[in-house]
Q: What sequence folds into this?
């Protein structure tokens, strides 16, 4: 295992690089990003060969098929990673933007200027494309990055890292701007999490237990979401055909991700008309329904939902369904059982949608659309570093802008405080 | 001591109040704030009477005079607290502001809207005015607040809290929006720091050891600064008279606060001309100098600075002084020994000031002004909740805007993800 000293020195090296990276021009950053995108495509056979080794281990260990699916790299997935690099290169550089400028009565000119955060540590599981997306976003926003992927994708991550650092070393980016921790011992993470002063932000991505462990141990600020128990509430004022399309999409289009719907809430007035068709449509797509008593009275053959179901992120073709008396009960349910990620109301009633938007305290609140849109790409942010359900710094999908801080530059002419 | 259950229930009550507080109108908030300001003045004798009890205990315990000074309340200090309330009432309500609005190609309208953070826990020491300033700022930004002051000011804080909640209970603010923890047992803080999910943000204010303890234990996001080792670098291109005025002000105007200068760096080219006068001026104000070897060669009778001096926040009439070879050495010194709070360069040379502003990675970087201006009031933010040297969420003085988060409201017409 890496020693504490080795870990500290690595972090010092990255911190030092981050100071220089903050001063690199947009043009030099974009050139490096474009070269990185091209290098990914050029070296795709090498990356796929290494990824096959991870896949073989995962299959041998009997990992579930959804896991294998997230882990696997194909030529088209690698093209997608390259495209992200090109997209990020084209986006506006957030660093140096003057956010605000104030002249005080004493003549002091105070400018609030956007700057990089510094050093970002990302801790993630399975998906190897996270490696290149995060490197792209961090470099464009002049942040140095320390990557710590899971052991299950270590060969794929190392291959992608090797290709990208190969490019970085020939570019104007300072050495040490990107580091990959290849030691998969858990204790290395614990050691990284006490490097406050060297690492400025930790972003854990993965299962809830991983993230809770990081929160418990870290002395460094964290941005995260634990899970995505997303709701769609079909109001009495809903267009029922639209509601059916949206709910089906929110559940089945990609059930294994955090913005998929896990619970559907239905106003009692329309439950009798809406639920039979809706549940039939779900059945046709292989979705298992776990319903409240009222749901089970309306639709026969529905399994009973127990209390724990309302808290559960299934990440699978399972859906809990509850009939509610009114919008207040729907909102109260979302606030009690939800995870403040993405929640939707389906209604034509402006008063109902206004109330829902105001009172649902989630990162993304939707009217008449699928929760599946909570995504950096869909929001127009290029790729995303992760999704936050915290109230601090960033909420929802995090792109380039969310990877910046600011500082105050104060211009005086001899002002002193009286 | 309060039980875990009592602490949890208190937090749940405040969380519940915070949801309602988010919906209170600006007018109702302002009315309550103005009534609070008036009530402080009206009840000043009661507050001063209770404060005298804290002062008596502090004197009995032999606390230092700077401590006694921070703790004491006078009629004029209470008027100042009331004035802050009136100022905050006059400021623009940040809640509900539309920060950004984007129409996506698929027709989705995405609005980024400013919302309160939710529940804020403030942990602080000695200064009782923090109680009313923080209550004012939190209520105006629709945040519920839990206050945990130190045992040394418990009677003063309780008196201020009683006066302000008396007003709150007669206003349109939801019950439970303000809570003061009267139990001064340390373990209560530890229990509060694991209430993630109920408390959204912790702001510790006080000594470095208090803050380190909070960082170690908290599962809730924190915004903080550990200390303020602020520097003034007198460049070779400085107006030496201006430099003398600024440095004197930065050191002596109020030495016990975080934005006072602790280290003065002087370019070797002007050290021989600048230091003798400057050190004489400091001596005249009772400032003890601890200098590097070059400083001691130029000015006789200066004590030798040891390595630990460069890291020290004296909060007193003591100053460390170092002669540097060039601006690069000055910047490197600040980045190595400083606390990224407030640092200044004194120079007429635009190239030097530009370099300093770019490369010094502190919350507030000054050209030709005293670091003493790092303050919410001086920045035009009304009062301040604290000063951040973190890179996450807020940097520098935190006012109303820094006490907000945002959420995305997404308006669709049936959009589903393909």
A:
């Amino acid at each position: 295992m890496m020693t504490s000293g080795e870990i500290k020195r690595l972090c010092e090296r990255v911190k030092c690089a981050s100071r220089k990276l903050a001063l690199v021009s947009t043009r030099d950053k974009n050139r490096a990003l474009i070269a990185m995108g091209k290098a990914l495509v050029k070296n795709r056979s090498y990356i796929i060969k290494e990824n096959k080794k991870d896949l073989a281990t995962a299959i041998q260990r009997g990992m579930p098929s959804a896991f294998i699916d997230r882990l696997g790299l194909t030529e088209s997935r690698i093209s997608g990673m390259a495209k992200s690099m090109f997209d990020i290169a084209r986006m506006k550089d957030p660093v140096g933007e003057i956010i605000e400028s104030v002249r005080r009565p004493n003549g002091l000119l105070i400018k609030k200027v956007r700057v990089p955060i510094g050093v970002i540590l990302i801790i993630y599981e399975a998906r190897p494309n996270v490696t290149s997306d995060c490197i792209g976003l961090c470099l464009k926003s002049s942040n140095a990055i320390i990557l710590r992927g899971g052991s299950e994708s270590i060969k794929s991550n190392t291959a992608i890292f090797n290709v990208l650092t190969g490019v970085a070393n020939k570019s104007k980016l300072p050495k040490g701007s990107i580091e990959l921790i290849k030691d998969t011992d858990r204790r290395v993470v614990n050691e990284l999490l006490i490097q406050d002063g060297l690492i400025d932000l930790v972003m854990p991505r993965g299962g809830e237990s991983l993230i809770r462990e990081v929160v418990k141990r870290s002395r460094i600020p964290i941005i995260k979401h634990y899970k995505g128990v997303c709701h769609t509430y079909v109001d009495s004022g809903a267009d029922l055909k639209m509601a059916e399309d949206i709910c089906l999409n929110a559940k089945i289009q990609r059930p294994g991700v955090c913005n998929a719907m896990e619970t559907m809430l239905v106003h009692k007035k329309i439950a009798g008309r809406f639920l039979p068709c809706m549940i039939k449509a779900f059945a046709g797509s292989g979705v298992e329904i776990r319903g409240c008593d009222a749901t089970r009275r309306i639709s026969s053959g529905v399994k009973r939902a127990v209390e724990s179901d309302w808290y559960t992120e299934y990440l699978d073709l399972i859906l809990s369904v509850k009939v509610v008396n009114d919008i207040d009960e729907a909102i109260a349910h979302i606030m009690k059982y939800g995870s403040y990620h993405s929640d939707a109301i389906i209604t034509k009633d402006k008063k109902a949608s206004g109330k829902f938007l105001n009172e649902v305290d989630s990162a993304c609140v939707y009217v008449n659309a699928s929760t599946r849109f909570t995504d950096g790409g869909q929001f127009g942010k290029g790729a995303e570093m992760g999704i936050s359900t915290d109230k601090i710094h960033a909420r929802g999908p995090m792109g380039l802008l969310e990877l910046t801080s600011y500082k105050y530059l104060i211009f005086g002419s001899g002002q002193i405080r009286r």
In short: Chain A is about 40% helix and 20% strand.
